[in-house]
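Module 6 notes. Inverse folding takes a fixed backbone as the condition and produces residue identities as the prediction. Think of it as a translation problem where the source language is geometry and the target language is the twenty amino acids. Below is one complete input and output pair. Work through it position by position during the lab.
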């Protein structure tokens, strides 16, 4: 780590912050600090890295966006939630402008980081049971489900249901909607697991030796795996499309 810091400082003196080699050394040092949990030490070079990357590569270059995301993560670890949220928001908005409707998985992954910051800030300022905190947790659960990470979505939604039951009652529309969403996440998790098990079983089955008559027409599907995998894949794709997911929650009055 000290060697990396020395190398970066030497490159800053020789080449300046605006050189790509210096920028690469900064990034390596920041990531090393971050991996070791030295978030405060990562802030200084991290801020310099973001500023230099913006000047050298532009605000929306992938390298710049990655540098901003790393700095936002360090801010969040230090409890600087407002700064973390603002930086994360710039990353999400930039990727939406660049990619449009494409690369939704990448956007969902960024939404998770942003959502974590919002939840932590809301818990810190409003408390765990406040309706706005529960709404933030619901939205974070949806971001996890959009990436197929149903276990995380289930655990968060169970927290939301417990909170709504205590604050709003078991029959409040928000409580009932959260329960419905929990059922959906559990159903999707089971379907994914069942499909995975079937595909594993298919892959373990030996293929029969078939002696074909050269004059006989060949069937459309020639292997057991193809016959099974294709309809299963088609079903899974239908189930996991964004249109099939519940709409993002909004707090009811």
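Target side of the pair, the amino acids:
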């Amino acid at each position: 780590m000290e060697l990396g810091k020395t190398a970066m400082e030497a490159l800053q003196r020789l080449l300046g912050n605006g050189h790509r080699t210096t920028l690469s050394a900064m990034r390596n040092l920041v990531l090393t600090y971050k991996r070791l949990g030295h978030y405060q030490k990562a802030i200084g070079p991290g801020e310099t890295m973001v500023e230099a990357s913006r000047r050298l590569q532009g605000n929306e270059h992938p390298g710049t966006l990655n540098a901003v995301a790393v700095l936002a993560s360090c801010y969040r670890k230090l409890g600087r939630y407002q700064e973390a949220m603002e930086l994360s928001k710039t990353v999400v908005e930039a990727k939406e402008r660049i990619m449009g409707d494409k690369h939704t998985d990448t956007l969902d992954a960024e939404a998770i980081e942003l959502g974590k910051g919002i939840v932590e800030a809301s818990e810190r300022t409003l408390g765990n049971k406040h309706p706005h905190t529960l709404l933030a947790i619901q939205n974070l659960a949806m971001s996890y489900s959009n990436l197929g990470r149903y276990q995380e979505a289930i655990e968060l939604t169970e927290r939301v249901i417990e909170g709504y039951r205590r604050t709003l009652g078991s029959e409040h529309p928000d409580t009932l909607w959260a329960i419905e969403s929990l059922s959906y996440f559990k159903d999707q998790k089971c379907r994914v697991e069942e499909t995975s098990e079937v595909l594993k079983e298919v892959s373990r089955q030996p293929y029969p030796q078939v002696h074909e008559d050269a004059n006989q027409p060949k069937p459309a599907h020639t292997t057991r795996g193809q016959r099974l995998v294709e309809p299963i894949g088609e079903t899974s794709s239908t189930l996991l499309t964004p249109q099939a997911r519940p709409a993002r929650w909004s707090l009811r009055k």
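Reference fact for the lab report: The chain has a mean pLDDT of 75.
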